[in-house]
Amino acid sequence: MYNKKMCELGNCRSAIRELFEYGKIRAKEMGGDKVYDFSLGNPSVPAPNEIKETLIQLITENTSSSLHGYTSAQGALETRVAIACSLNKKYGAELCPENIYITVGAAAGLCIVLKALNSANDEFIVLAPFFPEYKVFIESQGGVFKKVPFNESDFSVNLSALENSITSKTKGVIVNSPNNPSGVVYSEETVKAIAKILNKKSEEYKKPIYIISDEPYRELVYDGKKVPFLMNYYDNTIICYSFSKSLSLPGERIGYVAVSGKVEDQKNVYASICGAGRGLGYVCAPSLFQKVIEKCIDAKTDVAEYDRNRKLLYGELSKMGYECIRPDGAFYLFIKSPEKDANVFCDKAKQKGLLIVPGDSFGAPGYARIAYCVDYEMIKRSLPAFKELILEYKK
Ligand code: PLP
Question: Of the residues 243, 247, 352, 367, which has the fewest C-beta atoms closer than 10 A?
């Protein structure tokens, strides 16, 4: 007999993936120009040129078998050195290669960390609105998923709800800033307040409560916004990073876990991460891309294109009468549904070719997510459909 829970997961795709697959079929039937697909966070900006040049160089100049060979389970030493040095230089992080575990993206990083930390039905707190897969990742690693509501006025962290939700069973809190789906970047003040609560509760329960900082959008910020580096504010921090969005490499599956040098019992926490990676079979991330990352660690994506999309979409939708908060980071706009049930609203949008995702699975019913990592011209073409849609609610 197979695992019923896994079968259920396999049979019901996430709302995002469901819509993305629908969009592909619909585009074939109707023509791509009639479908405005805002479903998936697939970067529209190409990977920086350096990536392509490095790949060509590696393939043409390195003919040894090591190019495609296994690396150490936790990742090649040279790549871990490059990652640690880059974080130390940018943020004064004091990391060494023994703090880094290279993974196949942030998804694997999160699963590894959750497995490494969970001992027996531990609770992991997630701050709404959140990336829907957190629930799947936590429960698949045997943890208990617990969500904390947000402040509706600005999608900020509801600090008192966070404090009240922590119990003796709480093992960690997943923090995601810049946030998917709201685009909110947590301020330094918010980060300090979260750290204060967690320090107080760790003291009260006489055990560390970890921050698991999921940071795929760390570099995707606008208007010179700064993202506070959580390790500098809270000792028991473990970062799950990804190059999927920051270097537009989602299909290459590359990222890392970084354990702060100040984490309590750091050596054993890192060993647990190595053990969890081993247990899950997430060892030796793709070696060619480990080499690319080693050489391109400080490459940057061109955020100006996303910024242009952001300004157009936010500006035009606000003018039409959609309620939304101007996002400071990532590439999502989270709008308030003009009717109570965002599923009905998104279905109406779908009839007009607009593929946007209801907020329910993000822990925010009554909202909808628009991924603006798309072609600028498509946004322009989609605007009349957005206009028609909101007019239906103004009749
Ligand atoms: N975390 C967040 C907040 C995301 O938005 C995503 C992907 O969209 C992931 C994690 C997973 O990213 P990766 O491609 O690195 O597995």
Answer: 352
